[in-house]
Amino acid sequence: xxxxxxxxxxxxxxxxxxxxxxxxxxxxxHLDWGNRAxxxxxxxxxxxxxxSSRPPQVFGIDILREDADxxxxxxxxxxxxxxxxxxxxxxxxxxxxxxxxxxxxxDLELLLSQPIARCVKAS
Length: 123
What we know:
Layout: E1 3-4, E2 12-19, E3 26-32, E4 41-44, E5 50-53, E6 58-67, E7 70-77, E8 80-87, H1 89-93, H2 97-103, H3 108-112
Antiparallel strand pairs: 1-2, 2-3, 3-6, 4-5, 6-7, 7-8
């Protein structure tokens, strides 16, 4: 049964799946934006990437904090996959990802405040 991420505000989530083929394997949502799906706009992503499109019908994001102010970010946007290996909090915050995540009921600042990922070597 489809659910709205934020009743009356966000898109309707009509399905979820794992997208493989590009590292890492990402969980993505299938989204129905209703009338807003027809409205094309410019979406600013990290490192100067700008998409001219409607809101994504398929979207997934993975943010891995690797250091105090260094993040690895992967985004699935419809049929495209974007990856950035070393972004600062400011570089991520200056994009439209925060607004998009808000529409989906997620706070970008909480994702950026996650603990630093630690690799554990097998002994």
